[in-house]
Every structure is written in structure tokens, then in C-alpha cells.
Amino acid sequence: MFKGPADIKPETAMSELVPEPRPKPVVPMKPVGINSNLLGYIGIDTIIEQMRKKTMKTGFDFNIMVVGQSGLGKSTLVNTLFKSQVSRKSSGWNREEKIPKTVEIKAIGHVIEEGGVKMKLTVIDTPGFGDQINNENCWEPIEKYINEQYEKFLKEEVNIARKKRIPDTRVHCCIYFISPTGHSLRPLDLEFMKHLSKVVNIIPVIAKADTMTMEEKIEFKQRVRKELEVHGIEFYPQKEFDEDLEDKTENDKIRQESMPFAVVGSDKEYQVNGKRVLGRKTPWGVIEVENLNHCEFALLRDFVIRTHLQDLKEVTHNIHYETYRAKRLNDNGGLPPVTVEIEENHESNL
Fold this sequence. Notes:
This protein is about 35% helix and about 15% strand. It has helices spanning about 10-15, 45-60, 75-80, 140-160, 185-195, 215-230, 245-260, 295-305, 310-330, 345-350; strands spanning about 60-65, 105-115, 115-125, 175-180, 200-205, 260, 270, 275-280, 285-290. The strands form two sheets. It has a six-stranded mixed β-sheet with strand order 2-3-1-4-5-6, with helices on both faces. A three-stranded antiparallel β-sheet has the order 7-8-9, with no helix packed on it. The two termini are about 40 Å apart. It is α/β, with parallel strands linked by helices. A hairpin with a 2-residue loop joins strand 2 (about 105-115) and strand 3 (about 115-125).
């Protein structure tokens, strides 16, 4: 039952100023086992294969955003992550040219296929921040963009004649680039992440990690983790969303050892020991992007794509979107008007 302003007591009005904790995902109860000695083959084990076939036909969406100050190689890293020129759609641009500077929030869509699996990948490239004279509230355009995607999905959801498959433009993952200063996080970084972590899954990375020694890298990673903890900034994977002991054990190791990933990005290939590798050439040799002795790019790629991609989508839908949806419906006293539309800028870029 919704309460009107007259129903709210003064003491409760004060308490509403304190943000409520985000709801934890509901963990289903373990089913009570019936007789496991079945009299014959039923075919329950084919469900996984059925799901696989359906996914192979329809494909799936994944939307990744890159955020950070100018000159940290955001576009280059995303290209490296997906081994293609996904951060730029122009067919006239090639590997040898310098990537043009991002001046506005731009969503660029691609369909990537590997092993018969299709993924509709959208890269949301954001302009570098922090180099303006006035950086006050510079996170607002990005936060607004993320919320607009939730609003777009919500309006599709409440339509009477809604689509069978609602286009998903919600940001599933935000890679936040930290400058490799070796000292501490800038106040702007802390403020930025504090705001964004409430609406999206943030994965912090230390950019251009080849500018630091191994000792500096380890020390800086520890300092960043400590600062994020002190300021109450939650990055993905969030502790309260671990569903079981196995998840907790795996994610604790990532939170305590890997985060933030110290990475190097490059979409240029070089010949090393008779094979072609992605890397950065220096007077002292080639820094191999996928070599764990050189940087942690391979760990980031495995984390985002090979082990946690589906979970990133689920946390976006079940936690961040659900939080937005509940607040939006509560503020509106019911369903949002279905006649109002948001500009389809995103669709026009796909």
C-alpha cells in the first residue's frame, strides 16, 4: 500500500533521507530430493542442450561501457578485449591509424560470432573527464545515460502490446580506468566511482600498467583496494551478492588479489619468438598483452567474458535495474506513462 505525504510521520521522514540497502538476490531453497533411482530415462539432462540450441539461434546481448580520464587507452583496451575494432564503426579507420579522441557518449553496436555463438556487442565509449577547468558533477551525463537505458527497458516492459524480446540497451559492465600514478586515487576518481557504483557494475582497472615496476604495481593495487574500502565504494563482484560458498571463495580471491586489474592494451601485432602477438613495442622489447608475466589483461578478459559475463547481466537485471524500477514506480505512484518515448539514439548507432 502506497502512503501519501499526510501518512508519513516526522520521524520516518528523517529516516528516508538515509538510502535503504539494496535488496539481496533471492536464493531459491534447495529442493527436497525424491527417489533418485528413476525407473527409466526421462530426458531431464537434455534441458541444457535445449537452452544451448535456443541461445545459438537467438544470440545474446552484452553492453560494456568504458569510463576514465583522457589518454588512458579506453578505446584501445576494448578493441584488445574483443580482438577487433569494436570501439570504432567507421570502415575507413584501420589499425595503423591513431584512434580518434572520443568527444561524446557514443554507443556502437556489432555482431560478433565465435564457434556458432552470436553476440550483439555494444560498446559505450565515453569522453575523457578530469581535464576540464571545472570537473564538478562531471559524472552526471554518464549516470544519466545509464538511467535512460533502464527507463527505456521499463517503458517497453509495461507496454500493453510489448515486444516478445525487449531490446536490451542496459549497461551490463562499466570498466573504470585508473591512472597509473603509483600514489593514490584522485578525489575525482573516488567521487565518480561512488556515484556510478550505485547504478552499474564497476570493474576498476589500472591503465597503462607497463609504466610501473612490479613492486609499484603490487603496492598501488593494494592502496587502491584499501581506498575503495575506506570510502565504501563497491565494485563488481559485490560481496553481498555471492550466492553460495563456491561463489564467495572464487570472488574473494578476485576481490583480494586481482582487483584492480593492471592492464596494457594494444591492437597492434608483433613477431615474438616466431609467432604473432598483440603488444606494445619499446626500446627494451615487446610488452605482450596476453602474457601474464607482463600484465593482467588475460585475467581481465577471462573474468569479463569467460567466467562472469552471464552474472554481470543477471546482477544488472536483478539488482541495478530492479532498484531503478522499484524507485521509479514508487515515485510515480504506479506505472510510468507509456506514451512518453526516449530518443532512439542508441538504436540508430546499431
